[in-house]
TrEMBL record:
Keywords: Cell cycle, Cell division, Cell shape, Cell wall biogenesis/degradation, Cytoplasm, FAD, Flavoprotein, NADP, Oxidoreductase, Peptidoglycan synthesis
Listed cofactors: FAD
Gene: murB
Protein name stated in the entry: UDP-N-acetylenolpyruvoylglucosamine reductase
EC number of the protein: 1.3.1.98
Gene Ontology, cellular component aspect: cytosol
Known role: Cell wall formation.
Length: 338
């Protein structure tokens, strides 16, 4: 395992922020990972900063320590029964490539999560979701390296405490574990989910005669490509903010003043479309220098070239303040800020 010095992290984060790591390494195995914590230059109790696909981070500073990129790979079937197949994927596998692997093998359940950027290891960390499906719906278990005890622990779905873009790894155990693999419980017989968003419209547009997980995947890909900027062309981390959940009464009061407000029932509350709130505050298409709010999707902040992470962060703060002032709702960042 090679440890490099003063390395730009621009190729390793989808925002394409040009922050620097004092030390940088890639690990491909558990033994590599264990070696990282024995690096002679690490200060007492200092821990490496782990990155995967770099699709959910905003780097606002250079990192005066060790940044380690997870490149653990491998996909295998660990068991199966009449209805399900259990597939384990290493945390460094690209998420979309894993989805394509499942579709190719007719393993159903993740097709609605096509084209989400990032790696497999990040998927349970924030319970990624799209078009009516979340990781918790297909999750079986994961393995994670306990940094303090230097051993691997297995977590069940219950132990992960999944919530909306949440898990124990984002707050309760933040910085204590490094996810090394995730096992998914997938269906041999698909249960199609086409009711969310514009999936059915896109399928009709595609003139799909026989519904399949491949067709749903392609519909989701088409929709995402029409709405969201390609990180390979414009730096971004996808949805920058969570959709806020507010009490039903607060939503009803807002609806009187803003009849077009977009919300979805969520138990005893309402999940409000953050993109709509941001657009109503006039931010959609806004640009200051190379930092901006995307012209097609207000939920996405972008780096048009050489924006600093601090400039993106400052823009997000302005957006949050204006939404709170207009609607009385405080947005929460979905992206992890370093």
């Amino acid at each position: 395992m090679q440890i490099q010095q003063n390395i730009s992290l621009r190729p390793y984060n989808t925002f394409r922020i040009d922050a620097y790591a004092k030390y940088f390494a890639k690990f491909t195995s558990l033994s590599n990972l264990e070696q990282l914590f024995d690096a002679p230059f690490l200060q007492e109790n200092e821990r490496p900063f782990i990155i995967g696909g770099g699709s959910n981070i905003l780097l606002t500073l250079d990192y005066n320590g060790l940044v380690a990129k997870n490149e653990m790979h491998g996909i295998e079937i660990v068991k199966q029964d009449q209805q399900h197949v259990y597939v384990r994927a290493a945390a460094g596998e690209n998420w979309h490539q894993f989805v394509l692997y499942c579709i190719e093998n007719n393993f159903a359940g993740v097709e609605n999560l096509s084209l989400i950027p990032g790696n497999v290891g990040a998927s349970p960390m924030q319970n990624i979701g799209a078009y009516g499906v979340e990781i918790k719906d297909v999750f079986y278990e994961l393995e994670a390296f306990d940094i303090n005890e230097r051993k691997v622990k297995t977590f069940t779905a219950k132990e992960c405490e999944f919530g909306y873009r949440e898990s124990v790894f984002k707050r309760k155990y933040k910085g204590q574990y490094i996810i090394t693999s995730v096992t998914f419980k997938l269906n041999k017989q698909p249960v199609f989910n086409t009711s969310y968003g514009a999936i059915q419209q896109e399928l009709d547009k595609m003139q799909v005669k026989e519904l399949s997980i491949a067709a749903i995947s392609q519909a989701v890909i088409n929709i995402r490509q029409s709405k969201l900027p390609d990180p390979n062309k414009i730096g971004n981390a996808g949805s920058f903010f969570k959709n806020p959940t507010i009490p039903q009464q607060q939503f009803e009061d807002l609806k009187k003043e803003f009849p077009q407000i977009v919300g979805y029932p969520a138990k005893d509350s309402v999940k409000v479309a953050a993109g709509w709130l941001i657009e109503q505050c006039g931010w959609k298409g806004y640009r200051k220098g190379d930092a901006g709010c995307h012209a097609q999707q207000a939920l996405v902040l972008v780096n048009y070239g050489d924006a600093k992470g601090s400039e993106i962060l400052a823009l997000s703060s302005e957006i949050m303040q204006s939404v709170e002032a207009k609607f009385g709702i405080m947005l929460e960042r979905e992206v992890n800020v370093l």
